[in-house]
Design goal:
mainly alpha
Length: about 90
């Protein structure tokens, strides 16, 4: 991810927080959340949207966010990311 992408990523993360989109997305799929889940389905959705906005073109591109935990926080593994997406599709 180029330096411009990191700056844009930080701006997107702060916009999501400032608008409350992260809280809304976390509340909506609450019924899908398993009792001992570690990664929030709403955050996973936000992470995917951010990665796509930063020129990603598939779910596996979320790996680039994992390389910047100081900006994006903890990012779920690829298998964990695919679970809520499968639920959304269903």
């Amino acid at each position: 991810m180029p330096a411009v992408g990191q700056t844009g990523g930080l701006l997107l993360v702060e916009t999501v927080r400032a608008t409350g989109l992260d809280r809304v997305l976390s509340a909506q799929p609450a019924r899908w959340r398993k009792p001992f889940v570690v990664h929030d389905p709403g955050k996973i959705t936000c992470d995917l949207a951010i990665r796509l906005a930063l020129s990603g073109d598939c779910m596996a591109d979320i790996t680039a966010l994992r390389d910047e935990p100081g900006i994006f926080g903890r990012i779920a593994s690829d298998p964990t990311v695919s679970r809520p997406i499968k639920l959304l599709v269903a």
